[in-house]
Amino acid sequence: MNVNHHPDITTLMAFSAGTLEDPYATVIATHLAMSEGGRETLRHINTIGGALLTDEPEADLANGALDRLLDALGEDGDTIAVVPHDARPAAGDVPLPLQRHLPHGLGGVRWKWTGPGVATADLAWGQDGRSRLMLLRVAAGRPVPEHGHGGQELTLILSGAYRDRFGVFAKGDIADHDEEVEHQPIAEPGEDCICLVAVDARLTFRGRLMRALQPLFGL
Q1: Do 117 and 202 fall into the same domain?
Q2: Residues 6+ apart with CB under 8 A from 80
Q3: Does residue 69 sit within a domain?
Q4: Which of helix, strand or coil describes residue 97?
Q5: Residue 117: helix, strand or coil by DSSP?
Q6: Is 70 exposed, middle or buried (0-12, 13-18, 19+ CB in 10 A)?
Q7: What is the predicted pLDDT for the residue at 71?
Q8: What domain range includes position 16?
Q9: Where would I find the H helices in 35-160?
Q10: Domain termination site, one of 97, 124, 146
Q11: 102, 106, 122, 101: which is closest to 217 by C-alpha?
């Protein structure tokens, strides 16, 4: 798979450190399962991180520290597992890190109409109560209204492709945008574009009509 767009290095560093909220970590893990280049970058980050830890002075741990850590890790059965370096996409249309949310594949998704040519499906929310994991489907050749972002948005292409001012994003590509970015994705002709999206704030639409209808759409 030829993947041309990757996450920002700071996003990958946060993933490596385990500090991303679950929706964002799921998007990154799914991208890594689809991108050898992404996995190679993560390997370098982990190597650098390991070297830095090696240079840190040793510290004594209190009695029972390991048991408390293991108990804390066991409290949430839905934690994100880091993708193995040699991971590959699973058979079918859903990579392994996403299968827990889509056990019946993309064909089993219950879509909700969100606007002309656009549908969404909620998958999960982060523990912070703000970050959200969802699917976005844009009909072939249709645009998403021009918008900005109230926070960070990660968008991973699962099938199809879209085009915006940053280029063409196809299967496996990921767009890593913040509140400074405004764009208008347009799905490429021939196939619906299905994306895995993590956001932590509502979109900011430029058009007056879209702003008025935003509560109805839930975006």
Answers
A1: yes
A2: 20, 22, 25, 26, 29, 97
A3: yes
A4: helix
A5: coil
A6: exposed
A7: 60
A8: 9-97
A9: 36-55, 65-74
A10: 97
A11: 122
Enter the pTM of the model: 0.76
pLDDT > 70: what percent of the chain? 68
Q: CA gyration radius for the chain?
A: 19
What kind and span of H or E run contains 182? strand 182-183
Domain boundary among 97, 132, 151: 97
Tens-digit pLDDT profile for residues 114-156 = 878 889 999 999 998 889 999 999 999 998 877 566 678 999 9
| DSSP 8-state secondary structure symbol assigned to residue 163 | E
In this structure, the strands spanning 153-159 and 147-149 are unpaired
Q: What are 176's strand-pairing partners?
A: 154
At 42, phi and psi to the nearest 5?
A: -65, -35
Q: Which residue type does 99 have?
A: Q
User: Is residue 129 located within the same domain as residue 204?
Assistant: yes
Residues 22, 69, single domain; the answer is: yes
